[in-house]
């Protein structure tokens, strides 16, 4: 018979057995509901505390982005290597098999396209997110954009209210539009605003001084990859972000526009979950690509 002390120590039952008083494996999440924690645990591996999210939501603003013309051909083969899939509801319903069995980070906002500037968005109905069994709802914030800032912050606030009601975590995305020349002061401000308004996860960009962005944000941060880089450079970006405190990546173009996307996502995963250096991960990329 196990008594409470055994459970606390986890001793008789081996390493990795959950103990009664263990705190949750993600920063700032201890006070969330059981349902929220369960959904977050599907996305962020409890053993490493990290996640490789595969982002292919670009089309809802940009149309058929290069590498995303055919979800069935370009993205489906990558799904098994991702911890989580991030996409719009239209792509989820039409192109992601329902037996893929991966947690979904659902793009939960909608609005304008790249043709008319940043997305002046509205959030989708939370019931739709529930029907689609979303593990996370993602909402973009246009911090610093005088026309859209207030609207998008309010969108996040409403999404966080709905998420809290039904136990679905919300990701705040700090949009930069076409102006990528943002620094750590901007990303610190934008990330903190996301968290203060109820985001349970923040997606932002890597920058010099990224450790300060992480330190001043009370919830986990994942990084977007941004424009396509050489494979080694993209792996270095992942490595630096993880080293500086990121809880994972939510990466798109640097995976699906790679010369070998299947090799690339495995190399990214090795950096994120196994702590491989960029050089080691690039060697892994080349080895897999040769097969
Ligand atoms: C941006 O808002 C989109 O949500 C993308 O998911 C995000 O930028 C990640 O994709 P990428 O790594 O291509 O930047």
Describe this structure in words.
- This protein is an alpha/beta fold and 291 residues long.
- The protein has one domain (47-290): TIM Barrel (Alpha-Beta Barrel), CATH 3.20.20.
- Helix content is 41%, strand content 14%.
- It has 13 helices and 10 strands.
- It has an 8-stranded parallel barrel, surrounded by 6 helices. A two-stranded antiparallel ribbon has the order 4-5.
- Strand 6 (136-141), helix 7 and strand 7 (170-174) form a beta-alpha-beta unit.
- Helix 12 (261-274) packs antiparallel against helix 13 (278-290).
- The longest helix is centred in the middle third of the chain and has 18 residues, at 149-166.
- The protein is globular, with a radius of gyration of 19 Å.
- The structure holds ribose-5-phosphate.
- Ribose-5-phosphate (R5P) binds at residues 55, 57-58, 86, 140, 173, 175, 224-226, 250-254.
Bound ligands, named by name, code or SMILES: ribose-5-phosphate
Tell me the span between the first and last alpha carbons: 51 Å
How many helices does DSSP assign? 13
The CATH architecture is Alpha-Beta Barrel
Radius of gyration: 19 Å
**Inertia-based shape:** globular
Low-confidence stretches: 6-17
- Largest sheet, order of strands side by side? 1-2-3-6-7-8-9-10
Find the CATH topology: TIM Barrel
Query: What is the name of the CATH superfamily?
Result: Aldolase class I
β-strand amount:
5-15%
Q: Can you summarize the main beta sheet?
A: 8 strands, parallel, barrel
Helix content: 40-55%
Structural class: alpha/beta
- Helix and strand element order: HHEHHEHEEEHEHEHEHEHEHHH
How many domains?
1
